[in-house]
Amino acid sequence: MGQQPVQSATPYLDALRAYAGRSPGRFHVPGHKGGAAADPKIKEAFGERALSLDIPALTEGIDAGPEPTPFQLAQELAAEAWGAARSWFLINGASQGNHAACLSLAQSGAEVVVQRNVHSSTIDGLIVSGLRPYFVAPELDPDLGIAHCLTPAALDVALDATPAATGAMVVSPTYFGAVADVRGLAEVAHARSVPLIVDEAWGAHLAFSPELPEHALACGADLVVSSTHKIIGSFTQSAMLHLAGGHRLDEHVVDRAITLLESTSPNSLLLGSLDAARSYAAVRGAELLAETVRGLRSARQAIRQIPGLDVLDERLATRPGVHAYDPLRLVVDVRGTGATGYQVARLLHERDIFPELAGENVIVAVFGMGETAGDNAARLVAALERAVAALPGGEGGPEREFAPPPPWGPLEMTPREAFLGAQEVVPVEQAVGRIAAESLAAYPPGIPNVLPGERLTAETWEYVQTLLAHGGTLRGASDRTLRTARVAVEAR
Ligand SMILES: Cc1ncc(COP(=O)(O)O)c(C=O)c1O
Asked: Which tens digit of pLDDT belongs to each residue from 452-475?
């Protein structure tokens, strides 16, 4: 290994800048030639500088030539920053990380234990890899109507039932800032010598502040998917995959999976932004995150003063399945207003304020590591005040009793078999008893009720329809009105 630079260094970004600064003869792609041949509108919108830094892979002195190349050094610095044995820069988001994790696991087995409310990219990873999932339910919060994390006890039972599992895949933190007991989950997985894969898409920042819950690698996770763009602020679509030491997963298998799943023309702007964002987080993260946490603390107090609004805070960590709480997610509980989160969000949109997510009971606002959270949150607080004041009186509101989803149907085919096999669209009355070829996830709480390969039960069907009739929403179905369903054609 070459001499390792310190975290303030940005070797890959510097190499891009050095290349662009030399004004080299660009007799290579991309055809805009560093801006010289660019469409004027592109130039005007994105700037000459961005174009000059758009440099292809395998360029000497950037990611080719004497090793370690600046690209290798940048990834080594990322591994050091997160405490990984090896880190990879991804150009297709954390989604690519989940796909690669599934493909890597499939190299050593055919079955995997999966938290039921994983992101859709993990389900796609099951399709890509052909793995047969054994799903485990996360803890449900009947009060808020949302799903939290998986408990070590639930994982223990699932792994007992799946002795051939090649690994376990869980999510932490959730969309709502609930952090799992990753240490406990890792102990359970490791007791059976299987790797724990944590989708930490929402937690790339956790490694950089003592005020935040411990991050997954520090708690013993073996492979961690990190959506670096979400909170740390690299460019959209850029992400990382971190592998722990310990050899529960083969580094070369993971490497091959990543290569298979990405373009041979990775975008240097995305990669450069990862190098810079890593340095920013490692050098200034603690100070920046302290400001964000402080600003959000005041914002929470201010939002609680607005009639009908409450906010999630550290009290979340007392709920089942929640080990700790990430304060960078501002989850506003709107139930006391008598309106839904969708209604309040619409009023915010009218004021040009766009939260990350609206649900039946909550609105989620996301704050980035480097923003002056106090000032920006004040804008959100003011808009929320006006939105709540503008709500029509006597709104019906989400009065529906929360009913936990029924058990999902038996898995008759792997998600891959259902995805690749013959399919047909049938009227909804004929779907019960058939094998689903697509997902159905009713919100709240957003746990998939049906995934490709599962037989549709009457109970599930009734539940989804009742929920829709009461104003819930459906994700995943190609016909969102649920008049038809896409099912597998079974051999007779
Ligand atoms: C838990 C989780 N994992 C993975 C992803 C995919 O991340 P990306 O958009 O970076 O591909 C998301 C996206 O929201 C997510 O919420």
From this structure: 999 999 999 888 888 888 777 788
Record the pTM.
0.95
**How far, in Å, CA of 10 to CA of 105, rounded?**
32
For residue 323, the tally of other CB atoms under 10 A from its CB is 22
Pocket of ligand 1 (CB under 6 A): 93-95, 98, 119, 121, 171, 175, 199, 201-202, 227, 239
| Chain centroid, CA 305 distance in Å | 31
Question: Looking up tokens 């995805």, which residue turns up?
Answer: 419
Nearest CA among 405, 448, 417 for reference residue 119? 448
* CA atoms within a 13 Å half-sphere pointing along the CA-CB vector of 13: 18
Q: Provide the pLDDT for residue 440.
A: 87
DSSP characters for 396-450?
Answer: --S-PPP-PPPPPPPB-S-HHHHHHS-EEEEEGGGTTTSBBSS-EEEETT--EEE
CA of 227 to the centre of ligand 1 (A): 6
Mutational pocket test of ligand 1: of 121, 170, 174, 232, the residue with most ligand atoms within 8 Å of the beta carbon: 121
Q: Spell out the residues 6+ positions from residue 198 whose beta carbon is closer than 8 angstroms to its own.
A: 170, 171, 172, 180, 182, 185, 216, 221, 223, 224, 225
Say how far apart CA 61 and CA 68 lie, in whole Å: 10
Q: Note the pLDDT of residue 394.
A: 55
